[in-house]
Model the fold of this input.
Amino acid sequence: MTVNEIYRGDDAVRESLRLLDYYDGRNFIAPDGEIEHDVTVIGGGQSGVAIAHALRRAGVTNVSVLDASSGESDLAWRSLARMRTLRTPKTVSGPELGNPTLTPEAWYDSVYGRGSFESVDRIATRDWADYLTWFREQVGVEVRWGVRVSSVEPIATGRIRLHLATADRTWTEDTRKLVLATGVSGTGGPHLPRVLSELPEHRYAHTADDIDFDALQGKTVAVLGAAASAFDAAATALEAGAEEVHVYTRRATLVVAPIDPPRPNSLVQEVFHLLPDAQRWRQRWDAAANGANVPSDSVDRAAVFRNYRLHLSAEWKSAVERDGRVLVEAADGTRSFDFVIAGTGYQQDPATRPELATIAPFVARWSDVYTPPTGFESELLGATPYLGSGYELTERTPGTAAWLADIHVFSIGATVSFGRPVGDIPSLRAGIPRLADAIARDLVLADLGRA
Done:
């Protein structure tokens, strides 16, 4: 048997976890009979499952993972990810957290045959979704599907009450720690520019929405924005038979990513949260000002269609409904469309999420902590939570809400504080162990303090 064969297959996974004492399942956190969970994770996607796995490895086993989706078929990688392949290089470490038997390569070769992974340029999106299902099954993380958190209520430091709901009932459960692993929606949701505010809801959608692309057959579609998700949506509409698809950007040129871009220094990225606030802000401000890039293959996927149109330097001035169509006045002229798709990114203001409305007034945003120099202001960046080194929320007014340290953000809402899209694959390798260590530390110290 070769070394490669040793690391492949479900038997190899079980043996690796046995050697790590993973199956023992002991909980090293003192039980509290009045609180149901030591940790509750909101989000059953790649981050949420990997976090629960990391906590179990750390000896924290009383963990509950909740997701409002009805099942794995509704998770983003199967429903909203419209790219054909991952944008992350296949060699970047992900949720396996150092265990070679849990890597995508080990899964891929066990499914498609030894050596298959070597011939793949990038992992297909559907394969990544299948891999995540397999990963969850191997590490034994159960997700409570169809459970929505309607409100987060602080009871005291070390006790958070979750108001939960399914299709047919409501109830509450208490947890000592809460992790928001809510993906690109993070601590906010889709960012919809004011220019769309006058449109009726049936005339537009955000790329975060479950869009019925088949209904766009024979229709004219405008896509506002020119980053990756915008082009993926444009290509999907074209492939579904849209009559025309027009992509609009206010920039003079597309920001196209190199085919083989240099990989950022991961060691530098992992210490980003230790940099001074001014340096962190400036780096994130520069990234926002430069614009999100779009992979060349996403552009090519749309550009092969003759009925694709690109509008550069074409900022929208207005968008209103006229005679059953959307009349768009842009810098390069006025046109009408049947439907609009907004590829305009996300905002991270906790006050915009219903389940966080109760605690949002206490949460420190970047605008509460740091005042940028003139010319470097940003409303979107300023509304993002200002996090501590363990991804925990911090107080807007010191001394008023110590319980915020028990709520951790491992999602895109942590980007300004940690300098990268937290929750994306490259953030998992070092970020999740850091989060798990912080949670375990806090729980143990709290228990020792009560002894």
Summary: Residues 1-6 have pLDDT under 50 and may be disordered.
